């Protein structure tokens, strides 16, 4: 079979370090850091960020370099619409309305509007109250006491 060589990864560049190369540095907190070259060691001692050095793996990862494997797009499941009953209508009523032709519905709407208009006309003749211009009700803020007339 194949011979396995124990390699370390450089703490700065993330390149492989083969036996007999590089240097091991133990940080004050006890964490061992392996460096593949004096350059990597020196830059780390200067507190240089690996992500800002173009030749490091960190920089390449950050700038999306050399990502050969194209990620397969995940197919998301569409959420299914579920018909639910509304306060005024049962589910069957809603289904009936959905299957109805739009002409039928618009005819119904027109009929309802005509009825409302007719009611308004009949009310105008009867009620002694003056109709407020534009059919608006005088708005009184909630914190003001209403005076009954």
From TrEMBL:
All residue ranges annotated as the Large ribosomal subunit protein eL24-related N-terminal domain in the record: 7-68
Ranges of compositional bias, category Basic residues: 119-129
UniProt feature, compositional bias: Low complexity: 130-141
GO CC annotations, alphabetized: cytosolic large ribosomal subunit
Basic and acidic residues composition-biased segments: 98-118
GO MF annotation, one: structural constituent of ribosome
GO process annotations (BP): cytoplasmic translation
Pfam family name, one: Ribosomal_L24e
InterPro entries linked: L24e/L24_sf, Ribosomal_eL24, Ribosomal_eL24-rel_N
CDD domains the record matches: Ribosomal_L24e_L24
Domain of life: Eukaryota
Keyword annotations of the record: Ribonucleoprotein, Ribosomal protein
Annotated stretches, region: Disordered: 98-149
Family: Belongs to the eukaryotic ribosomal protein eL24 family.
PANTHER family named among the record's database cross-references: 60S RIBOSOMAL PROTEIN L24, RIBOSOMAL PROTEIN L24
Protein's UniProt name: Large ribosomal subunit protein eL24-related N-terminal domain-containing protein
The organism of origin for this protein: Minutocellus polymorphus
